[in-house]
Amino acid sequence: MSKRKWIGAALSLALCSAALSGCNFSNNSPGETAAPAVPEIDGAWTSKTEEQLRQAIAEAPAHGLKPDLFLKGGEKGAALTQAALKYASALANGYSDPKKLFEVYTIPHRTTDVKPGLQQAIQKGDVKAWIESLAPQTDEYRAISQAHVRFLQLAGKDQFKPVADGKPIKPGSRDPRMTQVIGALEAVGYVPPTATAGGSTQTPTSATYSPQLVTAVKALQGEFGFKQDGIIGGDTLDALNAGPAYRARQTAIAMERLRWLPRDAPDTRIDVNTASTTLDYYRDGQRVDRRNVVAGEADKPTPQLQAPLFRLVAKPTWTVPKGIGDKEVADKDPQWIADNGFALKDNLWVQASGPKNSLGFVKFDMQDREAIYLHDTPAKALFGIPQRHRSHGCVRVEDALEFATVIADQEGVLDKFQEAMEGDEDNKFVNLPNEIPVRLLYQTVFWDGSRVQFRPDIYGWDVNIAKALGLAPGAPIRIEQPESSDDVGP
Fold this sequence. Notes:
L,D-transpeptidase catalytic domain-like, eight-stranded mixed beta barrel, three-stranded antiparallel beta sheet, 15 helices, about 20% strand
């Protein structure tokens, strides 16, 4: 049986609309962006612009932010200006600084100076409209914000009660906990309450796990990226027991991550979401490809970075990093080492090119200090499983040879790439005439174009952001960890 590893911090069900504005916090929360110095603003605050600011900050919960992070009440003059700048910067750049929260974060962080905009807004007498223009104006941000507000409302009803632990509940079976399951599904909007003759509502009750409830549970599993088998147990039970408060917390964190990003992402780029283990390829502003990837294991996380893809490597060899070589290759049976093409060269293990090479048949070389790159893999079966955090930190790409061929064709080097693949020489470099930015993002909540999706915080990185935003700690979702294998790939 595969062991479970608990990821994340403890969930408090106290996160509701009241908690969002009233939790204790420090103005010097870890990773918080330093408050901008109060500038000289030409023109005084008027009762109109002051009220506009207070109204705008009162709507901060729609952005996953607490109003009292910015206003305590009664501020005037310079203190009001300080509050306005702090809130405007939080929407424009993010409330926290990702480079202070994470050991590695090289994705460009937006740092817009909001002082000139505030002065102009005060002079025009329209502070609220200016503030509302600062957050990301994207469909994804709006969808997550709407979901956040809905989950805050559901959490505020204080109806959620967790489902007791026990044996997995299979479709069609009977279990006394089904009443609890129905209540938990209702609490997050998967099952509507049943209206009574008097006009009030009550939760449906039944001990049978009916087809209607199976459909609801499969929808929940789909939104969390789990196997959609309808079985209530393990990670599915954890997701069910997280309730609306967990979703409110996660959507608040997701909006903060989106505020960090530049509003003008490169039109041609490769975005990898290491939380959902998916890759999106954009060309001239349009998404032209999506495929599964394998990212780093929970204790070997793929870092958050941006780096250019500058060349393809046909039929690569692999020089094994010393740490991996000493721990995972050196102690293998000599026959396994020979069968898999490993040999010691200058005290480092090197794997020959071929069908068993851990990089597969193509490597996507990136220029980054972390020595992270995308690559093919002989372990194709991993792309078909829900939990794809199985690498040592690099990113394995599904149908990588096909993906490399597409890029080579679009960049006008298809002939060179095909020649390199068909030739006798290994480790053949094919430079791209135009570098393609690759962003390795970590988004535990995202919008797939039709619905908001959730993924477990397998790296535990949401905790840092939650602390910076003053959010309540959250309960974990169990992640099925794979059994050990002979896969030593990067």
